[in-house]
Amino acid sequence: YFRDLTCPERAGAAGAARPQATLSPTFPMNKVLGGIALLTLLSAPLAAQQRGDVSLTLEGAIDGLSGGVWKMVGERHNLGLKVVARAADVENDDDQGESEVRALGLGIASRHYLGAPKPLRPFWEVGASAGVRERTVELPGDDELKVDGKFGAARGAVGAEWFLSPRFALSGSVGVYGEYVSEDEEGEATLEEPSTVAFTTGIGIRIVL
């Protein structure tokens, strides 16, 4: 059975028998886009926390400047690999002028957070570092003597991190820093006290990847 749609009467009758519904093409699309946007906003903080196993830090302290890469190995335990650097002026052992010290090394650190994850997270941390250093000694007559050496250091601290967002945090800490220095002997320029222990404070930032 075929309808002759070329006939206006039959075409009109066929059209009347099968009315066509009119839908707004923008109505379902708006609903879909709105739902996607809402889910994205609600899931962004959770997704950031789930991806927050790796982070970068930049910290400044009395004992030097360090930049690190950290990896969470549990809900409360963070392990870090650091590059440490220091440039400072220190008094000579003979009380004659100052020496300029420059040091560069690698370090490891273990940071343990107290309590469940929350914006303000207290922690305790231990770490160690080792590397090379150069001490420039001022001599009479505007002369200088450069003394090469090596160092090993250990650090323990307590502090807290304040997460301003899931991906960014500020930190502050206080602790104890100990260092042992071994230098090439250069007569009177040799250090009389190769080991030092001192209190230290530091501030830093953490960026979660």
Can you offer a commentary on this structure?
This protein is of the alpha+beta class. The chain contains 2 helices and 8 strands, in the order H-H-E-E-E-E-E-E-E-E. Strands 1-2-3-4-5-6-7-8 form an 8-stranded antiparallel β-barrel. The longest helix has 25 residues, at 26-50. It starts with 7 loop residues before the first helix and ends with a strand.
Summarize the structure.
This protein is α+β, with helices and mostly antiparallel strands and 209 residues long. The chain contains 2 helices and 8 strands. The protein has helices at residues 8-17, 26-50, and strands spanning 54-61, 64-72, 77-91, 98-113, 120-139, 143-165, 168-183, 195-208.
Annotate the secondary structure layout.
Layout: H1 8-17, H2 26-50, E1 54-61, E2 64-72, E3 77-91, E4 98-113, E5 120-139, E6 143-165, E7 168-183, E8 195-208
Antiparallel strand pairs: 1-2, 1-8, 2-3, 3-4, 4-5, 5-6, 6-7, 7-8
